[in-house]
C-alpha cells in the first residue's frame, strides 16, 4: 500500500505528515523497516508506513470521519491491519457488537445533506431525521424479566481497576465558558435550524471548528431540548477536519441519561468505540440510566454484558448504578445477589451501595432487614450516613410509628455518632406531612423547638397543608396565628393551603376572607391561589361566579394559566353550561393555552351526550385548526355522537376527514360505525368497513365480534357471517365466537342454523359450551321440539359434558307426553351411568 498524498494522521497529540516518515534524522531511529520514537513510544516502520496498531486505528478513524471518505479504502485499511497484527479478542468483539448500527448508513458531513448524493455536491437534509428514527426504535422492545442480573457481572475479571476508584472526572463548565461569544453564536445558529440555508451551515461549520472541547460541551448543555443537542452532536461528528473530544462524548451521554432517548445513548457509545475513544464504566452507566428511565430495565442490565465484551472492567460506580436499577425495578433479591458478586470480584461496596439496598428493603416493607443491614455496615468497613437512616425513617413515617423513629434517632447518635440536626427534623416533618399526619409532624416540630432548632415557614406550611388535607381547618388557623406571634410571617404557600382547606369543606366565604387577609398582610395572591379559589367555587356549583372572577383577573393584577382555564371549563361542563364552557375554551386557545386531548374529549363527550354532535364537531375542528393536540379518541367520540343521532352520513364524512388529518381510525372507531350501519340494515356497508379494518391490520375487539354477530344473526345471514368470521378470527382469536353465534341465532329463532354450528362449539367442551348447549335445548323446548333437545343432550354426553339435570327432566317429561318413552328412559340412564342420579331417583324419574 502506497501513500503519496500529503495528509495528516494523528499519533498521540502530534500530527505527522506521511512524507516525514522518509526522514529518519527526525527520529531516534529511521529509515525503512526500522523503528522510531515519538513522545516516548517506539513505533515500527515498514515501507515508510507506521504499522503500530494505534496508528492504524487513528488513521482509519480519521478517514472514516471525513466528508469524502471512501468505504473501499476503509475496508482495505482494516483488512491490512488485521492481516499484520491479528484480531484482539476483547476489543474486536466489542467493535462487532457496537458497529451493528453505523453512522455511515444514515448520515453524511452536511447538517442537511442527502446520503444518496455524491459527497462533492452541496447537500441538504432535514435536521433531526436520526432522532426520529431512534425514537421509533425506542418502543420496539418491551421490558421483560431481568433474568439473573448477578450473572451479568463476570467472576473472571482481574482486580487491577477495582481499587483505583474512578478515573472518570466530570466535566465542569463555568459561567465564563457558557457566556463565551462563540458558544452564544453557535447556539443562535442551531436555533435557526428551521430556516436553514447554505450560508448558515457554512457559518456553523466555521464556528464548530473554532470551538474547544469545553465550549462544545457548553453548546450541548445550553440546549433546552436534548433531542436538538443530540442532532447537533451527530452533525458535528460528520464534519471534515473536526473530531469530538472524549469529554464531549461523556457530556452527551450524561445529557441523555436524564432522558428516555436510550437508543441515542447506545449509539453515542458505539461512536466512541468507532472513533477509538477510550471507554470508561461511567459511559456505560449513563446508557443504563437512560434505559431505566425508559422503563426498559432488562436492556439496562444487558449493558453490563456489552461492557464486558468491550473489555472494560466494572468499577464501583457502574455496580451502584446496576443495583439502583434493580431496586427501582422491585428486584431486591437480584440486587442482593449482584452485591454479593461485587465482593467476589474484589469491588468493595460503599455507603451508596448499602443505601440502595436499604431503600430496596423499605420498598418491600422489610424494615427489620434494613436495620440489620445498617448494623452490618461498620463490620464491613463502611459507616452508615444520615441517608441510610432517613430511608428507614421515611417508611416509619408512613405508618406514624413515632416511637420507633425516636429510637432510631437515638441509635443514629449512639452507634454512628450522627447527631440529629435541623435537616433531620425538617425531613421528618416533610415526610409526615406528605402522608397527612399533621399531629405527628407538629409533635416532631415541638421537639425541634425544644432543642432550639430554628423552625421556618417551610415546616409550618407543610403542617398547615397536612391539616387542611385532613379537614382540620381550625388547627391550621391556629398554626397560622402562631406563625404571626413568632414573627414567622406566612407566605403565599401557607395562605393557599388554608384557602384550599376551606374550599374542601365548602366554606367559600371563609376562603374569600382568607384572600382578603392576604392583601391585608401584604401577601399578594398568585395564580395558584386564585385557581384554588376558582376550583372551590366550581366544585360547589358556582362556576358562573368563577367565570366572572376570572374575567376580572386584569383588574386584580393576576394572570390565569392553563390550569385556571381548565378548572372553569370543567366546572361549567359539570353544571351543563356547555355553551359557556366552549366560549372559555376558545378564549383559552386565544390566550395561547392549548387544552390537551383528555380535556377536549370531556367537553366533546358532554356535547354529544346532550344531543349536540354538530356543535361538538365544530369545536373539534376549531381546536385542531388552532394547533391543539387532537387524537383519534376525540374523533371517535364525535362519530359516536352522530351515530346516536342516526346521522351516519355525517359520521362517515368525519371518518374520511380523519384520514385527511392523518389521524388513523382505530378498532373502536370502526366498531362504532359497523354497529351503527348494522342497526340501520346497511349490512353490506358494515361488511365493507369490517374488511377495510382488517386490511389495515387492526385487530377486532370482543365488542366488534358481538356487533357483527348480532347484526348478521338478526338478518339470518349465517353463511355470510361465517365467511366474515373466519377472516376476523385470522386476525385475533375469540374463543366464544361460535358460542355467541349460536346463542344469537337461538334468540332470533334460527334453530336449525344454530344446530348446524354445534360441532364448532363442542370441540373444546368447556363450561361455556355447556351453557350454549343449554340455550339451544331451551329454545327447542320453547318451540315444541323436545326430540331435537334430546339429541343436543346426547351430543353433550358424547363429549363428556353433563347437561343440566333439571333441564333434562323437562326434556324427559316432554318426550313422555309425545309417547317417546325409550328416548326418555335412555336420557335418564345416561345420568345413572355417570353417577349423577341414584337408582332410587331414577325410579322416581321413570314414574
UniProtKB/TrEMBL annotation:
Gene Ontology BP annotations: mitochondrion organization; RNA processing
Biased composition regions of type Basic and acidic residues, renumbered to the chain: 116-128
InterPro entries: Mito_RNA_Proc_CCM1, PPR_rpt, TPR-like_helical_dom_sf
Any GO CC annotation of this UniProt entry: mitochondrion
Listed Gene3D superfamilies: Tetratricopeptide repeat domain
Ranges occupied by PPR repeats: 280-314, 350-384, 421-455, 456-490, 491-525, 526-560, 561-595, 596-630, 631-665, 666-700, 701-731
Coiled coil: none
Keyword vocabulary terms for this entry: Repeat
GO molecular function: mRNA binding
One Pfam family from the record: PPR_2
Segments for region (Disordered): 104-128
Family to which the UniProt record says this protein belongs: Belongs to the PPR family. P subfamily.
NCBIfam families in UniProt: PPR
Protein name (Swiss-Prot/TrEMBL): Pentatricopeptide repeat-containing protein At1g09900
Amino acid at each position: 500500500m502506497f501513500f503519496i498524498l500529503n495528509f495528516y494522521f494523528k499519533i498521540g497529540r502530534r500530527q505527522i505528515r506521511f512524507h516525514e516518515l522518509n526522514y529518519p534524522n527526525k527520529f531516534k531511529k529511521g529509515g525503512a523497516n526500522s523503528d522510531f520514537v515519538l513522545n516516548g513510544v517506539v513505533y515500527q516502520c515498514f515501507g515508510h508506513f507506521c504499522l503500530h496498531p494505534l496508528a492504524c486505528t487513528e488513521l482509519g478513524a480519521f478517514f472514516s470521519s471525513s466528508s469524502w471518505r471512501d468505504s473501499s479504502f476503509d475496508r482495505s485499511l482494516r483488512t491490512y491491519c488485521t492481516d499484520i497484527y491479528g484480531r484482539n479478542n476483547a476489543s474486536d468483539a466489542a467493535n462487532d457488537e457496537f458497529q451493528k448500527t453505523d453512522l455511515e448508513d444514515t448520515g453524511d458531513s452536511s447538517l442537511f445533506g442527502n446520503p444518496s448524493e455524491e459527497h462533492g455536491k452541496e447537500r441538504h437534509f432535514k435536521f433531526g431525521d436520526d432522532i426520529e428514527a431512534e425514537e421509533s426504535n425506542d418502543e420496539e422492545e418491551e421490558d421483560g424479566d431481568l433474568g439473573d442480573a448477578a450473572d451479568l457481572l463476570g467472576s473472571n475479571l482481574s482486580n487491577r481497576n477495582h481499587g483505583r476508584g474512578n478515573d472518570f472526572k466530570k466535566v465542569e463548565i463555568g459561567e465564563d465558558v457558557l457566556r463565551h461569544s462563540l458558544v452564544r453564536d453557535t447556539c443562535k445558529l442551531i436555533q435557526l435550524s428551521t430556516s436553514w440555508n447554505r450560508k448558515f451551515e457554512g457559518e456553523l461549520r466555521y464556528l464548530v471548528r473554532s470551538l474547544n472541547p469545553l465550549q462544545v460541551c457548553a453548546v450541548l448543555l445550553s440546549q433546552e431540548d436534548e433531542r436538538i443537542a443530540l442532532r447537533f452532536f451527530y452533525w458535528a461528528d460528520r464534519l471534515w477536519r473536526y473530531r469530538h473530544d472524549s469529554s464531549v462524548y461523556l457530556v452527551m451521554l450524561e445529557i441523555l441519561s436524564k432522558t428516555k432517548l436510550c437508543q441515542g445513548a447506545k449509539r453515542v457509545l458505539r461512536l466512541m468505540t468507532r472513533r477509538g475513544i477510550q471507554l470508561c464504566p461511567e459511559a456505560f452507566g449513563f446508557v443504563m440510566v437512560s434505559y431505566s428511565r425508559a422503563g426498559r430495565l432488562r436492556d439496562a442490565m444487558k449493558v453490563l454484558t456489552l461492557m464486558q465484551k468491550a473489555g472494560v472492567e466494572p468499577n464501583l460506580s457502574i455496580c451502584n448504578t446496576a443495583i439502583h436499577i434493580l431496586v427501582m425495578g422491585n428486584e431486591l433479591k437480584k440486587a442482593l445477589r449482584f452485591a454479593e458478586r461485587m465482593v467476589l470480584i474484589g469491588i468493595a461496596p460503599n455507603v451508596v451501595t448499602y443505601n440502595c439496598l436499604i431503600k430496596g428493603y423499605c420498598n418491600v416493607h422489610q424494615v427489620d432487614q434494613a436495620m440489620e443491614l445498617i448494623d452490618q455496615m461498620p463490620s464491613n468497613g463502611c459507616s452508615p450516613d444520615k441517608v441510610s437512616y432517613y430511608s428507614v425513617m421515611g417508611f416509619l413515617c408512613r405508618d406514624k410509628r413515632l416511637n420507633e423513629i425516636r429510637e432510631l434517632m437515638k441509635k443514629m447518635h449512639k452507634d454512628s455518632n450522627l447527631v440529629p440536626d435541623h435537616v433531620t427534623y425538617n425531613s421528618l416533618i416533610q415526610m409526615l406531612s406528605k402522608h397527612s399526619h399533621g399531629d405527628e409532624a407538629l409533635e416532631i416540630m415541638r421537639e425541634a423547638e425544644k432543642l432550639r432548632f430554628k423552625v421556618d415557614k417551610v415546616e409550618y406550611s407543610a403542617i398547615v397543608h397536612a391539616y387542611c388535607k385532613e379537614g382540620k381547618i381550625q388547627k391550621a388557623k391556629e398554626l397560622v396565628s402562631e406563625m404571626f406571634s413568632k414573627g414567622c410571617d406566612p407566605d403565599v404557600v401557607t395562605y393557599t393551603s388554608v384557602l384550599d382547606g376551606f374550599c374542601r369543606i365548602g366554606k367559600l366565604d371563609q376562603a374569600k376572607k382568607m384572600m382578603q387577609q392576604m392583601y391585608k398582610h401584604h401577601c399578594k395572591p398568585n395564580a395558584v391561589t386564585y385557581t384554588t379559589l376558582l376550583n372551590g367555587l366550581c366544585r360547589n356549583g358556582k362556576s358562573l361566579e368563577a367565570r366572572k372572577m376570572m374575567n376580572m383577573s386584569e383588574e386584580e393584577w393576576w394572570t390565569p394559566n392553563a390550569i385556571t382555564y381548565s378548572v372553569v371549563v370543567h366546572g361549567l361542563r359539570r353544571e351543563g353550561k356547555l355553551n359557556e364552557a366552549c366560549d372559555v375554551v376558545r378564549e383559552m386557545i386565544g390566550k395561547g393555552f392549548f387544552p390537551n386531548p383528555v380535556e377536549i374529549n370531556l367537553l366533546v363527550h358532554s356535547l354529544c351526550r346532550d344531543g349536540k354532535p354538530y356543535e361538538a364537531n365544530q369545536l373539534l375542528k376549531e381546536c385542531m385548526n388552532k394547533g391543539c393536540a387532537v387524537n383519534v379518541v376525540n374523533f371517535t367520540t364525535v362519530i359516536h355522537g352522530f351515530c346516536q343521532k342516526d346521522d351516519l352520513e355525517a359520521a362517515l364524512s368525519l371518518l374520511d376527514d380523519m384520514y385527511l388529518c392523518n389521524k388513523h381510525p382505530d378498532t373502536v372507531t370502526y366498531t362504532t360505525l359497523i354497529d351503527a350501519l348494522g342497526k340501520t340494515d346497511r349490512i353490506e356497508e358494515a361488511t365493507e368497513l369490517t374488511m377495510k379494518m382488517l386490511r389495515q391490520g387492526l385487530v377486532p375487539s370482543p365488542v366488534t365480534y358481538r356487533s357483527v354477530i348480532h347484526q348478521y344473526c338478526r338478518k339470518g345471514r349465517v353463511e355470510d357471517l361465517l365467511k366474515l368470521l373466519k377472516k376476523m378470527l385470522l386476525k385475533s382469536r375469540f374463543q366464544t365466537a361460535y358460542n355467541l353465534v349460536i346463542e344469537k341465532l337461538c334468540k332470533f329463532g334460527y334453530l336449525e342454523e344454530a344446530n348446524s354450528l354445534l360441532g364448532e362449539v363442542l370441540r373444546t367442551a368447556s363450561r361455556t359450551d355447556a351453557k350454549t348447549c343449554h340455550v339451544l335445548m331451551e329454545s327447542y323446548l320453547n318451540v315444541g321440539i323436545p326430540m331435537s333437545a334430546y339429541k343436543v343432550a346426547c351430543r353433550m354426553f358424547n363429549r363428556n359434558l353433563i347437561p343440566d339435570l333439571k333441564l333434562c327432566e323437562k326434556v324427559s317429561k316432554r318426550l313422555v307426553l309425545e309417547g317417546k318413552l325409550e328416548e326418555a328412559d335412555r336420557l335418564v340412564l345416561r345420568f345413572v351411568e355417570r353417577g349423577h342420579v341414584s337408582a332410587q331417583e331414577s325410579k322416581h324419574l321413570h314414574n
